[in-house]
Design a protein that fits this description.
290 residues; two-stranded antiparallel ribbon; TIM Barrel; 10 strands; single chain; 37% helix; 8-stranded parallel sheet
C-alpha cells in the first residue's frame, strides 16, 4: 500500500483561530503554521485561488515546516476559467474595464501568459525545498466533458511540467453513464492525477464520489454534507462535522485507493471551527497514517 497523507484545506481560517484548537502559545502566523505542521504532514493552500502568492510568502511556508511536510496549492482562479477579481491581478496586468471580474478572454494574450508565469514562479521555494505536492486545478461547474476542455487539461499539465497537477472536475457530465469510464481512462492515459470529491448530492454542481487512481498520486477532498450547500456564507456551506461512522465507512475506500497509487492525499475541506482538524485527526487514527 502506498503512503497516505492526511491534512486540511486551511490553517488560518478565522473560525479555526477562534475555536481554541491552537494553543495559546501559537499567537503568530509562524507559530500557528509550525504547530499545524507538527499535527499533520500535509496542507492545502486555498488562498492562492483568490490571488497569486508572493514568492517571499511561499519561502516562509517552506522554512517554517519540517523537511518532509507537503503543500498542495490551489490554482489561481484565472487559470481554471473562473471569474477573477480585477483587483486580484497584478496592477500592470489589469485590463481597462469597469467590471469587477474578468475571465481569461478578458486579458490580452501577453498578460494572460504573464499570469501563468508569475503564478508558477512564485512556487519556486516549495519546489526547491521538495515540499510541493500538487497544484490543484478545480474546474468550474460549467467546465463540461468536451474535446476542447480535454485539450485544456493537457495544456495545463504541459504548462506546469515538471510540477504535478491534480484535476478536480465539477460538472456531472464527466461522470454520467459511460462518461465516467471515459474520463478516468483519459486521465490515466495522460498520467493526470484525478481528485475525488465527497460533497452534498442533488445540487446543480454535485458530482458523485468516484474513488479511483489515475496516476501514481491520488487525492480525495472532503467538502462535507451541509444542508446549506447553496449558502453564500462559506462557513454555512462547509460547516459540517463528519461523524465517526462516516469516516469509518471511508477508511477501507481510502486504503484501497492507496493500494493503487504511490501517494494518496486526503484533505478535509469542511473548514469551519476546528471541524476539519478534528476529522483529519480521526482519519489518521483510522488509517494508521502519519
Amino acid at each position: 500500500m502506498g503512503e497516505i497523507r492526511v491534512g486540511t484545506a486551511s490553517w488560518t481560517d478565522s473560525t479555526l483561530l477562534a475555536s481554541g484548537w491552537y494553543p495559546e502559545t501559537a499567537k503568530s502566523p509562524e507559530d500557528r503554521l509550525r504547530y499545524y505542521a507538527r499535527q499533520f504532514p500535509l496542507v492545502e493552500v486555498d488562498a492562492t485561488y483568490y490571488a497569486s502568492p508572493a514568492e517571499s510568502t511561499v519561502a516562509l511556508w517552506a522554512t517554517r515546516t519540517p523537511k518532509d511536510f507537503v503543500f498542495n496549492i490551489k490554482a489561481f482562479s484565472m487559470l481554471t476559467g473562473h471569474p477573477t477579481k480585477v483587483s486580484a491581478l497584478p496592477k500592470d496586468l489589469r485590463p481597462e474595464t469597469d467590471k469587477p471580474n474578468v475571465y481569461p478572454d478578458g486579458l490580452k494574450p501577453q498578460a494572460y501568459e504573464e499570469v501563468w508565469t508569475r503564478f508558477l514562479a512564485a512556487l519556486d521555494p516549495l519546489v526547491e525545498a521538495g515540499k510541493l505536492g500538487m497544484i490543484l486545478f478545480q474546474f468550474p461547474p460549467w467546465f463540461t466533458i468536451r474535446r476542447d476542455n480535454k485539450q485544456y487539461l493537457l495544456e495545463v499539465a504541459k504548462r506546469c511540467t515538471p510540477l504535478r497537477v491534480g484535476i478536480e472536475l465539477r460538472h456531472e457530465s464527466w461522470f454520467s453513464g459511460d462518461n465516467a469510464a471515459e474520463t478516468l481512462e483519459f486521465l490515466r492515459k495522460h498520467k493526470l492525477p484525478y481528485v475525488c470529491v465527497d460533497m452534498p448530492q442533488g445540487y446543480k454542481n454535485s458530482v458523485p464520489p468516484v474513488v479511483a487512481a489515475t496516476a501514481d498520486l491520488a487525492a480525495v477532498r472532503f467538502h462535507g454534507h451541509s444542508d446549506k450547500w447553496t449558502s453564500k456564507d462559506i462557513h454555512e456551506k462547509f460547516g459540517y462535522l463528519y461523524s465517526p461512522r462516516e469516516l469509518k465507512d471511508w477508511a477501507p475506500k481510502l486504503r484501497e485507493l492507496a493500494g493503487e497509487a504511490e501517494q494518496t492525499h486526503v484533505l478535509m475541506n469542511n473548514c469551519y471551527s476546528d471541524y476539519a482538524q478534528r476529522n483529519a485527526a480521526q482519519l489518521i487514527d483510522l488509517l494508521g497514517a502519519k
